[in-house]
């Protein structure tokens, strides 16, 4: 069992939205509108969840300087968490 990131594992598991977003980013680069469309969430819900995941260094924005078309992916930490919770 992965105990190194136990707090983040709990953080992700308590939110179905965060789980959906992480699953969408598994081995993929996506923008918030793509995530929203494939998860049936609003773009604002996705953006809010991405911000909290980014604050915990679970996801990273690859082009932070852009206002539109920001591309997100999982960090190595995010990939480990995703593998541990088996989404």
How would you portray this structure in words?
It is a single chain. The protein has 87 residues and is mainly alpha-helical. The chain has a single domain (6-85), classed as Winged helix-like DNA-binding domain superfamily/Winged helix DNA-binding domain (Arc Repressor Mutant, subunit A). 56% of the residues lie in helices and 7% in strands. A two-stranded antiparallel ribbon has the order 1-2. Helix 1 packs across helix 5 (76-85) and helix 3 crosses helix 4. The mean pLDDT is 93.
Note the topology.
Layout: H1 6-13, H2 16-25, H3 32-39, H4 43-55, E1 59-61, E2 72-74, H5 76-85
Antiparallel strand pairs: 1-2
Helix pairs in contact: 1-5, 3-4
- Biggest sheet layout: 2 strands, antiparallel
Structural class: mainly alpha
User: Taking all residues together, what is the mean pLDDT?
Assistant: 93
CATH topology: Arc Repressor Mutant, subunit A
Task: Report the β-strand fraction as a percent range.
Answer: 5-15%
**Annotated CATH architecture:** Orthogonal Bundle
Low-confidence stretches: none
Number of strands: 2
Q: How many helices does DSSP assign? A: 5
Overall domain count: 1
Q: Name the CATH superfamily assignment.
A: Winged helix-like DNA-binding domain superfamily/Winged helix DNA-binding domain
Name of the CATH first level: Mainly Alpha
What letter string, H or E per element, gives the SSE order?
A: HHHHEEH
List the strand order in the largest sheet.
1-2
* Helix content, binned percent: 55-70%
Radius of gyration: 12 Å
The general outline is globular
Query: Distance between termini?
Result: 15 Å
């Amino acid at each position: 069992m992965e105990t190194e990131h136990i707090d983040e594992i709990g953080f992700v598991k308590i939110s179905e939205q965060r789980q959906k977003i992480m699953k969408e980013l598994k081995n993929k680069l996506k923008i918030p509108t793509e995530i929203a469309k494939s998860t049936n969430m609003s773009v604002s819900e996705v953006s809010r969840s991405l911000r909290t995941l980014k604050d915990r260094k679970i996801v990273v924005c690859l082009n932070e300087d852009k206002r539109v078309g920001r591309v997100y992916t999982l960090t190595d930490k995010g990939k480990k968490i995703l593998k541990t919770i088996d989404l």
